[in-house]
């Protein structure tokens, strides 16, 4: 199974945003803190914004905020926002996959792998990752109205 760099960077950016809800964070700050290439992160954050997982604020005090509470954002949401399908085979979704002859049971195994991975990712929220972090998070500050 392959976890894309986009999914990894997106999850790391969301965890970073969840750790400091008192102010918007710039892509530069997230990229620096998480050691992510800035240009790549800009593209990833664009996907997250389009999916509603982050929101942006323009201006000198601008940057990015979580689009909804960290407890409501799952890793499955993140993967789907940046990659689309969870698992594909040669770029195709597994739903219609079928093989002839003695390999006819194999697509069921691939779909089960996808189902189990999806269940784990759906059960893991950004808030849970922040909670599990070994790095102390700053005290939460109320978001502006």
Automatic annotation (TrEMBL):
SUPFAM superfamilies to which the protein is assigned, alphabetical: Winged helix' DNA-binding domain
Pfam families to which the protein is assigned, alphabetical: Rrf2
Keyword DNA-binding: yes
InterPro entries per UniProt: TR_Rrf2-type_CS, Tscrpt_reg_Rrf2, WH-like_DNA-bd_sf, WH_DNA-bd_sf
Keywords from the named record: DNA-binding
Protein name: BadM/Rrf2 family transcriptional regulator
Organism: Kitasatospora saccharophila
UniProt lineage: Bacteria, Bacillati, Actinomycetota, Actinomycetes, Kitasatosporales
């Amino acid at each position: 199974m392959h976890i894309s760099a986009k999914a990894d960077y997106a999850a790391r950016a969301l965890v970073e945003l969840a750790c400091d809800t008192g102010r918007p964070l710039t892509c530069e700050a997230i990229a620096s803190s998480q050691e992510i290439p800035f240009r790549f992160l800009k593209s990833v954050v664009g996907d997250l914004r389009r999916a509603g997982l982050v929101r942006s604020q323009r201006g000198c005090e601008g940057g990015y905020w979580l689009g909804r509470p960290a407890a409501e954002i799952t890793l499955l949401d993140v993967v789907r926002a940046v990659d689309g399908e969870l698992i594909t085979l040669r770029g195709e979704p597994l739903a219609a996959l079928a093989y002839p002859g003695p390999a006819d049971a194999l697509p069921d195994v691939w779909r089960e792998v996808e189902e189990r991975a999806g269940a784990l990712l759906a059960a893991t929220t950004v808030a849970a990752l922040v909670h599990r972090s070994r790095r102390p998070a700053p005290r939460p500050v109320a978001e502006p109205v």
